[in-house]
Automatic annotation (TrEMBL), chain A:
<dbReference type="GO" id="GO:0042941">
    <property type="term" value="P:D-alanine transmembrane transport"/>
</dbReference>
<protein>
    <submittedName>
        <fullName>Branched-chain amino acid transporter permease subunit LivH</fullName>
    </submittedName>
</protein>
<keyword id="KW-0812">Transmembrane</keyword>
<feature type="transmembrane region" description="Helical">
    <location>
        <begin position="202"/>
        <end position="223"/>
    </location>
</feature>
<keyword id="KW-0029">Amino-acid transport</keyword>
<dbReference type="GO" id="GO:0005886">
    <property type="term" value="C:plasma membrane"/>
</dbReference>
<feature type="transmembrane region" description="Helical">
    <location>
        <begin position="12"/>
        <end position="35"/>
    </location>
</feature>
UniProtKB/TrEMBL annotation, chain B:
<dbReference type="GO" id="GO:0016887">
    <property type="term" value="F:ATP hydrolysis activity"/>
</dbReference>
<comment type="function">
    <text>Involved in beta-(1--&gt;2)glucan export. Transmembrane domains (TMD) form a pore in the inner membrane and the ATP-binding domain (NBD) is responsible for energy generation.</text>
</comment>
<dbReference type="InterPro" id="IPR017871">
    <property type="entry name" value="ABC_transporter-like_CS"/>
</dbReference>
<dbReference type="GO" id="GO:0005886">
    <property type="term" value="C:plasma membrane"/>
</dbReference>
<protein>
    <submittedName>
        <fullName>ABC transporter ATP-binding protein</fullName>
    </submittedName>
</protein>
<dbReference type="InterPro" id="IPR032823">
    <property type="entry name" value="BCA_ABC_TP_C"/>
</dbReference>
<keyword id="KW-0813">Transport</keyword>
TrEMBL record, chain C:
<keyword id="KW-0472">Membrane</keyword>
<feature type="transmembrane region" description="Helical">
    <location>
        <begin position="386"/>
        <end position="402"/>
    </location>
</feature>
<dbReference type="InterPro" id="IPR021807">
    <property type="entry name" value="LivHM_N"/>
</dbReference>
<feature type="transmembrane region" description="Helical">
    <location>
        <begin position="350"/>
        <end position="374"/>
    </location>
</feature>
<dbReference type="Pfam" id="PF02653">
    <property type="entry name" value="BPD_transp_2"/>
</dbReference>
<keyword id="KW-1133">Transmembrane helix</keyword>
<keyword id="KW-0812">Transmembrane</keyword>
Length: 305, 277, 433
């Protein structure tokens, strides 16, 4: 039971990170109708930028952890968002009205570019950082000596996710930008006729998605203490699985799907086999798509004849 | 109604969630006759078509098809492609569904897929080029050519279907359906978007299919000049139920029909009445 | 980086400055600072102002060049610029290109007999030509997007490797078996994904490819895991080995042994396999099954209304494509003599898909040309190992922007009454899957 509770905590933390990445997939798919294959790599870039910013701040002699965290968060969100914006401008916008395979292949190409750009620029080796946020709470100690731990970093990951999700939900449901986004999702031509700047709205979608992926990258860095150039691919597919599981296009769905994938992966590793945890995640993706293509919270699609 | 029945729709009901698109609908279509299904927009006509041709599975009711040899087939139990393959029901679509990147001839060849598939020994014999397949292919091209001639598209045989004019595409779709050699041909608004001259040609084509080929036709149509001219029997639907049926003359004078049309679309009501006068 | 088309030197400069500033921010941390874990596990970093400055300068200069080009060519893009006369000229060349390429391919071992490097490269190109033609059946003809094609390549390779190393079965028995096994896997993948469309199909096939790779890595007892399968037997000329032993081919023919014999043999083997793939595909296109594939790509609903069993039609497409992938895989295993999961990553699937799309979806000649271009281009960057994928990714993006419809942008009809007219790719659908 204690082991289960510990895995539950671990799974929720991992799920929060997946959820943050999944939001980027779901938003872009909702508006442009394409899988942004490079999104996993945006997450990886976010992790790297966070890492480098950390290094600089620490070598500058800063010691106040909250200040460092805040600066790192803002810098990595800003720069990663600019990556998202640039990629949309270069690789996707020229293909928006092209045939459907073109943006997908362009996105795969962009994903290769980012992965290998990162490898070329920062080397192939794993980059570790020393544990930055330490400490935590012992929730429960069982007679046989098993301890349920809740570390500060875990609390931070979950809290940050909740706060960001709240801000983001507000953004989409209450602001002008959110309304424009929903309009573009329904019908881009009509939205344009009604004075919505479609290009700008789509750009903003990529910017927001990339910023959230950067947060996920930072959380990953803090939680696991390392980044490497290849981490975007698998994390990206899992986050996409999460987006589909939750119902593509639905923001709460993406979060829910992220949590589900995080929990499944953690429990699978804990109780079955670590080696096959990715196989489990991919199998779930296949099963979900086949039996529940609209996901948990998605809208059903009706075949028109 | 007299004569031999080819299609019997019995208490057909189709529900989508809470919406009842078709409710307790019963009608019959006679062999070698043209039966028209008319009604205002949203009456549920295309839903009936989709139930008959297997694109929807009806919520309730029975659809029976009787072949020449007396064999009865329960269409509501067959799914999609088997209705065309085994029950020999062919259809066209309201919003033309050709294979736009294939030539007109290729479109008609695809329609003969099942016959050619058998002749090609399910590909294996065809791959090594047995003569029986070659003669089957020649035969298929002949059939396609005949239909291209009938719909007046022989000179466009090698053009991409997507490059044909709208009216030509409508006729090609009918030719394609006929190349499956159906017992029952279901046409979903074949005259939509056609001008008066093209509509007249269409009427002629449908009559020749009935009289020369002996194919039974079930037709959804808004163009009353076509419906009144060629139909042997008319079924009128509104809000998912049948409100009238009978010969063109009977339907035309039915106050319920006029009310249904007047209640929704004045132009169509006028068309119904004018075509009777 | 693109910007709205404007006129005047000042606006060009302005665009270039803005792009350079964006580049400065993008590259500032990722390029300007290099991190590395030291021997004690501690991260260190150093500045790279030189690299950063030169990259920003490249973006600045590049922006000016692109803006100037854009003003000369005009804002409407380059797609429509090819005049009809040139196009018909190209079609004329195209008619003789295929036979010329074939003759050239047959003569490659004669021309380059002593150039091992070129022969190896030619074998590699032909392997990808075959893979491209195989995937073309699924993606180009049936319009089903498959991002996990490498899985079938892997199944074929491991089938041969394991059968040959464990049971000493000959290559010529294993080759068809590898094809059949891969086809079975194709059907196994095909079944669950029948109902899926578009991007969902793509992602499921991708996941399938990854699952196969992960199973190969983790099922160590069978596959040797990450260490791979070593010592895979070389192919024989129907039982006669191509080595310098006493009963080898050279000894039997009474000629002096040379290792090139085997390379030449492998070359003709893959050429024959590729041509078989091509021949079968061309024939299938003219058979009802091939027409049904293309009809499926054009409109699945209409197919069902015509009585075509879309389930078996899709499955046969998957199985046929997978079979060719499996045959190519068996060849790969016998050529390498060693296989490991590293050869079957997603990048391979993406490369083959890029070849098919660049070739122009459904065009056999286009796929061959695309494989030649891509693999040849890839080879140019052999020295810069880490930059290869970077350049490959950029090439994919640029190619999609330049020619989203591929090199050969028209479809040839499979049957005609009076004259075969090429169909513009604008009309040809890309499939729903």
């Amino acid at each position: 039971m204690d082991y289960f509770a510990q895995q539950l905590i671990n799974g929720l933390v991992l799920g929060s990170i997946y959820g943050l990445i999944a939001i980027g997939y779901t938003m872009v798919y909702g508006i442009v109708g394409m899988i942004n294959f490079a999104h996993g790599d945006i997450f990886m870039i976010g992790g790297f930028i966070a890492l480098i910013t950390f290094l600089i701040l620490i070598s500058l002699g800063l010691t106040a952890i909250p200040v460092i965290l805040l600066v790192v968060l803002l810098v990595s969100m800003a720069i990663t968002a600019l990556y998202g914006w640039t990629i949309e401008r270069i690789a996707y916008r020229p293909l928006r009205h092209s045939f459907r395979l073109a943006p997908m292949l362009s996105a795969i190409g962009m994903s290769f570019v980012l992965t290998n750009y990162s490898q070329v620029a920062q080397g192939a080796r794993v980059k570790p950082i020393p544990p930055f946020i330490t400490g935590g709470y012992t929730l429960h100690e069982s007679p046989d000596g098993f301890v349920i731990q809740l570390s500060n970093i875990q609390i931070m990951v979950v809290l940050t996710t909740i706060v960001l999700l709240a801000i983001f939900t507000w953004l989409v449901s209450r602001t002008r930008l959110g309304r424009d986004m929903r309009a573009c999702e329904q019908d881009q031509t009509m939205a344009a006729l009604l004075g919505v700047d479609v290009d700008r709205t789509i750009s903003m979608t990529f910017v927001i998605g990339a910023a959230l992926a950067a947060v996920a990258g930072l959380m990953y860095l803090l939680y696991y203490g390392l980044v490497d150039f290849f981490m975007g691919f698998v994390a990206g597919i899992k986050a996409f699985t999460a987006a589909v599981l939750g119902g593509i296009g639905s923001l709460p769905g993406a979060m829910l799907g992220g949590l589900a994938i995080g929990l499944i992966e953690t429990f699978w590793s804990a109780y079955f086999s670590v080696e096959y945890k990715d196989v489990a995640a991919f199998s779930i993706l296949i099963v979900v798509l086949i039996f529940m293509p609209t996901g948990l919270l998605g809208r059903p699609e009706v075949e028109k004849v | 109604m007299s004569g031999e029945k080819i299609l019997g729709v019995d208490q057909l009901t189709m529900r989508f969630g809470g919406i009842v698109a078709v409710h307790d609908l019963s009608f019959a279509a006679e062999r070698r006759k043209i039966t028209a299904l008319i009604g205002p927009n949203g009456a549920g006509k295309t839903t009936v078509f989709n139930c008959i041709t297997g694109f929807y599975r009806p919520t309730g009711g029975a659809i029976r098809l009787t072949h020449d040899d007396g064999k009865q087939i329960a269409l509501e139990r067959l799914n999609d492609f088997r209705i065309a393959k085994q029950a020999k029901v062919a259809r066209t679509f309201q919003n033309i569904r050709l294979f736009p990147g294939m030539t007109a001839l290729e479109n008609l060849m695809v329609a003969q897929h099942n016959a050619l598939m058998r002749a090609s020994g399910f590909t294996f014999l065809g791959l090594i080029g047995v003569p029986t397949y070659r003669s089957a292919e020649v035969h298929a091209i002949e059939l396609a050519t005949e239909w291209l001639r009938r719909v007046n598209l022989l000179d466009r045989a090698d053009d991409a279907a997507g490059n044909l004019a709208y009216g030509d595409q409508r006729r090609l779709e009918i030719a394609r359906a006929m190349c499956t050699e159906p017992a029952l041909l279901c046409l979903d608004e074949p005259a939509a978007g056609l001008n008066a001259r093209e509509s007249a040609a269409l009427s002629e084509l449908l009559l020749s299919i009935r009289d020369e080929k002996g194919t039974s036709i079930l037709l959804i149509e808004h163009d009353m000049s076509v419906v009144m001219e060629i139909s042997d029997h008319i079924v009128v639907m509104d809000h998912g139920v049948k409100i009238a049926e009978g010969s063109p003359r009977e339907v035309r004078d039915d106050p319920k029909v006029i009310a249904a049309y007047l209640g929704t679309d004045e132009e169509e009501a006028m068309a119904v009445m004018e075509s009777g006068s | 980086m693109p910007a709205k088309p404007t006129t005047g030197i000042l606006s060009i400069l302005k665009t270039a400055v803005v792009n350079a500033l964006i580049a400065l921010v993008l590259f500032s941390l990722m390029v300007g600072i290099r991190t590395e874990a030291g021997s004690d596990g501690q991260l260190t970093y150093w500045m790279r102002f030189g690299e950063l400055a030169s990259l920003v300068a490249v973006v600045f200069g590049g922006s000016i060049v692109i803006e100037l080009l854009r003003q000369w060519i005009g804002p409407s893009g380059t797609e429509k610029l090819v005049p009809p006369a040139v196009q018909s000229g190209m079609a004329f060349v195209g008619r003789f290109l295929a036979p010329a390429l074939l003759i050239f391919a047959l003569l490659v071992p004669v021309i380059f007999y002593n150039q091992r490097y070129i022969l190896d490269l030619a074998i590699l190109v032909l392997t990808y030509v075959m893979l491209g033609w195989g995937l073309n059946v699924v993606v180009g003809l049936a319009g089903l997007l498959d991002l996990g094609y490498v899985a079938f390549y892997a199944v074929g390779a491991y089938s041969y490797a394991l059968l040959a190393t464990n049971f000493d079965w000959s290559f010529w028995i294993c080759l068809p078996l590898a094809g059949i096994l891969a086809a079975l896997w194709g059907v196994m993948l095909g079944f669950p994904v029948l109902r899926l469309r578009g991007d969902y199909l793509a992602i499921v096939t991708l996941a399938f490819g990854e699952i196969i790779r992960l199973v190969i890595i983790n099922w160590q007892e069978l596959t040797g895991g990450p260490n791979g399968v070593p010592g895979i037997p070389r192919p024989t000329l129907f039982g006669i080995p191509l080595d310098n032993s006493d009963d080898g081919l050279a000894a039997r023919l009474g000629i002096e042994y040379s290792p090139t014999h085997r390379i030449v043999f492998l070359f003709y083997l893959i050429l024959a396999l590729a041509l078989l793939t091509n021949w079968v595909t061309i024939r299938l296109r003219r058979l009802p099954i091939g027409r049904a594939w293309e009809a499926l790509r054009e409109d699945e609903v209409a197919c069902r209304a015509l009585g075509i069993n879309t389930t078996t039609t899709k499955l046969t497409a998957f199985a046929t494509g997978a079979m060719f992938g499996g045959l190519a895989g068996a060849f790969f295993a016998t050529r390498q003599g060693f296989i490991s999961p590293e050869s079957f990553t997603f990048q391979e699937s993406a490369l083959v898909l890029a070849i098919v799309v660049l070739g122009g979806m459904g065009s056999q000649l286009g796929v061959a040309l695309a494989a030649l271009t891509m693999i040849g281009g890839f080879e140019l960057f052999r020295g810069l190992e880490t930059y290869r994928m970077l350049v490959f990714g950029m090439a994919m993006v640029l190619i999609m922007i330049w020619r989203p419809r591929g090199l050969i942008g028209h479809r040839a009809p499979t049957v005609y009454l009076t004259k075969a007219k090429a169909i513009s790719s604008d009309l040809v659908k890309e499939g729903h899957g």
